Amino acid sequence: MIRFILVVIYVVLFLVLTIPVMVVEWIIGKRNPGLKDRSSKAIVSWGFRCVTFLSGTKVVVRGQERIPRDSAVLYVANHRSYFDIVLTLNLFPGVTGYVAKKEMLKWPLLNIWMKNIHCLFLDRDNIKEGLKTILTGVEKAKNGISLCIFPEGTRNKVNDTFLPFHEGSFKIAEKGGIPVVPMVIVNSAGVFEDHLPRIKKETVTIEFLEPVYMDQMDRADRKKMGSYVSGLISERYFQLREQDADRQ
Question: Which pLDDT belongs to residue 183?
Fold first, then answer.
């Protein structure tokens, strides 16, 4: 429980003590939006690195060299833990937001930082509002801002399984003309969700796969992007799982 208490105290202090920083970021954004984008990401990434340290989590990263540097990208990953966001933000080379559920807007102060790093808030129960969110994501992609989405739509609560990937999750890449970068996350639930409320010292593997360019696929295949990318991620996931088992 000590790690859990330390992380909670740190997050509360971070949110409260950075209130003046939020004001400064707002002022910077009025004069230099690009600088605000970079500085906000740096601040939040630093905060996440501190959470990672306090939780005792070791992150093994593979395949970062596969991430395209000449455009925004859509990162697509399996989702088992709140730590999926904490552990991945600082791995992205450019300004990157997450597609989160709209309920996150209810969290004071946290929602400000999420907006500062270009997170989008998806209403999964309102098709019209969901479409507006996707269109906003398309505009961000065209302006060079990458996004990370978890197409399962919610945290999967069963280890070593995958919920269906929603096909609509890939519209940002298709309409924005940006590549999809599949991201495999292994054992993130071992940090927290597998033994709530304790946080345990664990090793999490994150691997970036080769980018997928939807404009190079025929129309029929683009309609099946969810199952295609899910297949890529699940295949590599179980390979990594087997490798971890062999090392133990």
Answer: 98
pTM metric for this prediction: 0.94
State the pLDDT confidence band at 156, using cuts at 50, 70 and 90: confident
Residue 228, token pair as written in the block: 């295609």
Q: Which secondary-structure segment (H or E) carries 112?
A: helix 110-116
What is the DSSP track for the chain?
A: -HHHHHHHHHHHHHHHHTHHHHHHHHHHHHH-HHHHHHHHHHHHHHHHHHHHHHHT-EEEEE-GGGS-SSS--EEEE----THHHHHHGGG-SS-EEEEEEGGGGGSTTHHHHHHHTT-EEE-TT-HHHHHHHHHHHHHHHHTT-EEEE-TTSS---STT--PPPPGGGGHHHHHHT--EEEEEEESGGGTTGGGTT-----EEEEEE---B-GGGS-HHHHTTHHHHHHHHHHHHHHHHHHHHHHH-
pLDDT digits (tens, 9 = 90+) for 27-53: 999 999 999 999 999 999 999 999 999
